[in-house]
Write a structure and sequence with these properties.
Blueprint: E1 8-16, H1 22-35, E2 39-45, E3 48-56, H2 57-69, E4 83-87, E5 95-99, E6 120-122, H3 124-138, E7 145-149, H4 153-156, E8 159-161, H5 175-181, H6 183-186, E9 190-194, H7 199-210, E10 216-220, H8 223-230, E11 236-238, E12 240-241, E13 248-249, E14 269-271, E15 280-282, H9 285-289, H10 297-302, H11 320-324, H12 335-340
Parallel strand pairs: 2-5, 6-10, 7-9, 9-10
Antiparallel strand pairs: 1-3, 1-4, 2-3, 8-11, 12-13, 14-15
Helix pairs in contact: 3-8
Domain Rhodanese: 141-236
Pfam families: Rhodanese, Rhodanese_C, UPF0176_N
Organism: Pardalotus punctatus (spotted pardalote)
Length: 342
């Protein structure tokens, strides 16, 4: 009865460690989640595990206890590594557990760029002080620091740290190319990096450090999730994007994004109404009631033909607005841009 309770939460976690038998760990994870009635997504690799699962609070509590008792994670994974938020099994359509080459898809062989070469971890308190100092210096045009958002453009669009540099990229696998094409931007700079839960910074900071252009590279331990637990009204404004059916969770009342159609303040994502499309769109209730529910004119007006797989499942394709977006934009940053937080 407790496992089936509607009162639940979502757990986000990762653990970098040596996994000698990913297939066995994957099968164990799948069986454990099924027994606890958990849904979500879990990636297992020889470099560790990365998961987001939802269920009742009793089930997620048991899941944490079992994970901490697993020999593979002993003395590596701890209670503080699990980030929780209100939700449950309903936040995910199903349970997906698989073996991959990377536990976070950056597209670089973990043997070439290892999480072991990561940047310096800062606690939420330390990161808060660094951002405070950075914003003070940036307002005077004296900062030699870059506050770097490692997430995708649609994530930073609805919430980010004040004064951050948010790359206009669609996937984390574009991040290495973004760094390569903007190396001069980071030369001799102190870089403060952050992401949702910390995992993208592990590989992202290692990649940036491998280029040997920065003075120092730091990252927010536990990501935005942990920062908001300590500083719900701190320097992060807006919502925190999450990769499940909630799309976002909030800790403050700020709305920093706008409706795609009328420009009114709005930050609640919905899927594009065109059946073939995989994009998210910000459309306010007023515009939505007018039928403006697609991500671009092509999806809205022409209703592109649905392409189906042999199995009958709809094949999600990239639409015109996605194809037009530069794969890896070249950033041009000015003190004014940093000061306004754009």
């Amino acid at each position: 009865h407790a496992l089936g309770s509607q009162v639940g939460e979502v757990l986000l976690y990762y653990c970098y460690c040596e996994v000698k038998d990913p297939e066995t760990l994957c099968a164990w994870q799948k069986a454990l989640c099924q027994r606890l009635h958990l849904t979500g997504k879990i990636r297992v690799a020889s470099e560790g595990i990365n998961g987001t699962v939802g269920g009742s609070k009793v089930a997620t509590s048991l899941y944490i206890k079992v994970m901490l008792s697993q020999p593979v994670f002993k003395n590596i994974l701890c209670q503080e590594d699990f980030k929780s938020s209100a939700g449950g099994a309903h936040c995910f359509p199903d349970l997906r557990v698989g073996v991959f080459k990377e536990i976070v898809p950056m597209g670089i062989d973990p043997k070439i760029v290892s999480y072991k070469e990561t940047g310096i971890h800062l606690s939420p308190q330390e990161f808060h002080r660094e951002v405070e100092q950075y914003l003070s210096q940036a307002s005077q045009g004296q900062s030699n620091t870059i506050l770097l958002d490692c997430r995708n453009f649609y994530e930073s669009k609805i919430g980010h740290f004040q004064g951050c540099l948010a790359p206009d990229i669609r996937k984390f696998s574009y991040f290495p190319s973004y760094i390569d094409e903007n190396l001069e931007l980071f030369r001799d700079k102190r870089v403060l990096m952050y992401c949702t839960g910390g995992i993208r910074c592990e590989r992202g900071s290692a990649y940036l450090r491998s280029k040997a252009v920065c003075r120092e590279v730091y990252q927010l331990k536990g990501g935005i999730h942990k920062y908001l637990e300590e500083f719900p009204d701190g320097f992060y404004r807006g919502k925190l994007f999450v990769f499940d059916d909630r799309y976002a969770i909030c800790s403050n009342e700020d709305i920093i994004s706008a409706c795609r159609y009328c420009g009114v303040l709005w930050d609640q994502y919905k899927l594009c109404s065109s059946q073939h499309c995989r994009q998210l769109v910000l459309t306010c209730p007023s515009c939505s009631n007018k039928g403006l529910t697609a991500c671009c004119p092509v999806c809205q007006e022409k209703g592109l033909k649905v392409t189906s797989r042999a199995s009958g499942q709809t094949l999600k394709e990239e639409c015109e607005c996605t194809r037009r977006r530069p794969r890896v934009p070249i950033e041009h940053v000015s003190p004014r841009m940093l000061d306004t937080g754009k």
